[in-house]
Amino acid sequence: MIYLRQVAALLILAAVGGAWVSSATAQPASRVQTGQTAADDPQLEAQVRELAAKLRCPTCRALSVQDSPSGMAQEMRDLIREQLRAGKTPEEVTAYFVERYGEWILLKPTAEGFNWTVWLLPVLMIAGGLVFVFLTARRWVVQGQARAAALAEGDDIEPAGRPAATASGLASARHRREESES
Q: How far apart are CA 94 and CA 92, in angstroms?
C-alpha cells in the first residue's frame, strides 16, 4: 500500500514537471503562427530590444522588459515584435503600452506635468545638501576663529551652550590638581 502511494506521488510529480518543462520550452504563439524567428530580421530585433529596454516589466518591476526573464516580459517582447511587423511606429507601440498599463510602465518617465518632480527633486535635494554643508562648515570656521582670537586676548570663553566656569569651580579644580600632584 505504501509502495503504491510512492509510485502515485512520483507519477504526479513527473506529470507536473513535464508540463512545466514543455511550457518553458514551447515557442510563443506569435512565432508559431508567422513561422518567423528572431534571427530572420536583425533590424526588427534591434528595434524590439530598444523598445523593450524602455519598458518596465510588470512582473519584476525593477527590470526592463528586455532584461527580465519572466514569461510576461517574453509576451510583451513578442507583442512589440508583432506590432512593429504590422507597421506601427515605435512611438505608437510605446503609446499602446502606456495606454494599457499607465505611465508607470515607462522606465524613464516623460518630463512634463507632475513628473517634473521626479527630475527636479534629486537635483534640489543635492543642492540643498551642499548649501547646508557649506553653511555649517562656514559657521564652524567662524566660531573657531572667534575662539582663537578670544584665547589670544586671554579671555575665558566656553563653547556655546555650556555655562562659563565660575571662580569657585576653577578654584576647586586647581585644588584637586595640586592634591593629585603632591
A: 5
The runs of H, that is alpha helices, within 89-115 are 90-101
Which distant-in-sequence residues (6+ apart) come within 8 Å of 64 by Cβ? 52, 53, 54, 55, 56, 57, 107
Domains of the chain: 27-108 (1.10.8.640), 117-181 (no CATH)
32 Cα distance to chain centroid: 37
Distance, in Å, from the CA atom of 116 to the CA atom of 155, rounded to the nearest integer, reads 54
> Could you give the CA distance from residue 75 to residue 77 in angstroms, rounded to a whole number?
5
- Evaluate whether 132 touches 140 at the Cβ level (below 8 Å): no
Measured between alpha carbons, how far is 147 from 141 in angstroms, rounded to an integer?
Answer: 10
- Report the mean per-residue pLDDT for the chain: 77
| Distance (Å, whole) CA 161 – CA 174 | 24
Using pLDDT thresholds of 50, 70 and 90, give the confidence band for residue 153.
confident
Give the pLDDT confidence of 91-144 residue by residue, as tens digits: 999 999 999 998 888 887 776 777 778 778 889 999 999 999 999 999 999 999
d(CA 28, CA 20): 15
